[in-house]
Write a structure and sequence with these properties.
The structure is a homodimer. Chain A is mainly α. Helix content of chain A is 63%, strand content 0%. Chain A has twelve helices and no strands. Chain A has helices spanning 19-33, 40-47, 51-54, 61-76, 86-102, 108-111, 122-134, 139-168, 175-181, 189-194, 198-203, 207-219. The longest helix of chain A has 30 residues, at 139-168. Chains A and B meet through helix 7, helix 8, helix 9, helix 10 and helix 11 of A and helix 7, helix 8, helix 9, helix 10 and helix 11 of B. The first copy, chain A, binds a DNA duplex through helix 3.
Chain lengths: 222, 222
DNA sequence: ACCTGAACACCGTTCAAGT
DNA sequence: ACCTGAACACCGTTCAAGT
């Protein structure tokens, strides 16, 4: 919660820059050039100020990143029309979160946070937990189910994002390709068998398939 | 594969440090003080040399980290006794990988790699793919299944590791706790209902439950 | 209250030269 | 072939002082 709109209690030098301006400018840098280009110094010059001025509006860089995540979630997480059937509601909600995150790869570095806990994301968590409960899970199992879905979703994003990063800034064959070409088929027969299609198989987007499997497993008879 | 044991082809100044020594020393630093303390300069002084000497044995820091991961996998990924039943074999293999990674939180920053593709980890991938095939999946579905399991596993590790990091270097209440105390029960009834137990529920280790659900869902009738 | 300048204590990596 | 010294082009953050 930014305090920018709070009335000024005491007199003093009028602020030249605001927390909001800091976040907005940071967002512009990140969108244009990636998180790794966001530095306090760069941000300061972009904003026409000095590094230290930023520390009056933001505790440190870590906090700035969290604010950035929040800002992103607030702007882009649109609540979708949800199906009536609770199982499908769980799927659709998770898929929406996944889509928002996938569109924003830089987020990974921040988001590997405890939980997807931007206030604006809570509604999504609610939908998933509620859907699982309506499908018959006791509330503790529903929370655990939500966690499992979150692990799976975050994992997919992180793994894919890093794979993409490796691909762009590295021209030589990946370590994986190297490994797969000289596979011993007597020791690792299955891998040798699929070696040729491995990279095409792993490039396919199977997030939804895995999600459906996970939800089926969470709800299925045990 | 280190080239340290290759016979020297041409004459020249005899090497004072080896790639192996670089990796071993790096490992010691990381084990003792965490990845964030591993810098090329630090490593150089620790090894009794200069930063630039390292670049004769390692392409750059990125490569050093990959070597470190490989080294870790080779030393600690012990092949377990596996159950005969294929479904249980998949579970047991994934659990072993998970355990090795969980014991080594620094690995997250590296491991968010394309795949868990250290050569020594391939045997584990083989077991999972093979188990899924023996349970009746066609080989492409088995590879996708492996990917889903990997996403789930990597996600669990990443999320938990970051949560732990936040907890240690931050004394004030987490953002999450803050959010959960002022939940609106009319807007988010389910979350309000479980708010009190949320943190205990999310601290529980439910990796295995989620894994079982996922594997059930991957194999179950659809 | 808010901002500035200078400084502290670092980074990864390159270049040119030495042995 | 291997190593060194000095330098480049940066970091995040603190401190003391200014308005």
């Amino acid at each position: 919660m930014p305090q920018t709109s709070a009335p000024r209690k005491t007199l003093g030098r009028p602020p030249r820059i605001s927390r909001e301006e800091v976040v907005t400018t940071a967002r512009r840098i990140v969108d244009a050039e990636g998180v790794h280009r966001l530095t306090m110094r760069r941000l300061a010059t972009e904003i026409g100020s000095t590094p230290m001025a930023l520390y009056h509006h933001v505790r440190n860089k870590e906090e700035l990143l969290v604010l950035l995540l929040d800002d992103y979630a607030t702007r882009t997480l649109q609540r979708p029309e949800l199906p009536a059937q609770p199982r499908e509601r769980v799927i659709a909600t998770a898929a929406t979160i996944h889509e928002a995150l996938a569109a924003c790869p830089w987020i990974v570095e921040v988001l590997t946070a405890d939980d997807l806990m931007a206030t604006s994301a809570l509604w999504f968590v609610e939908q998933i937990v509620d859907g699982l409960i309506e499908c018959g899970l006791p509330s503790e199992r529903a929370v655990h189910g939500y966690r499992a879905i979150w692990y799976y979703t975050a994992g997919e994003i992180v793994v894919r994002a890093t794979a993409a990063r490796r691909r762009t800034d590295d021209t030589r064959p990946t370590y994986r390709e190297q490994v797969f070409t000289d596979l011993d088929p007597t020791e690792l027969p299955r891998l040798a068998q699929v070696a040729d299609h491995w990279s095409s198989l792993t490039t396919e987007d199977t997030y939804l398939d895995g999600l459906r499997a996970l939800v089926d497993g969470l709800l299925g008879p045990r």
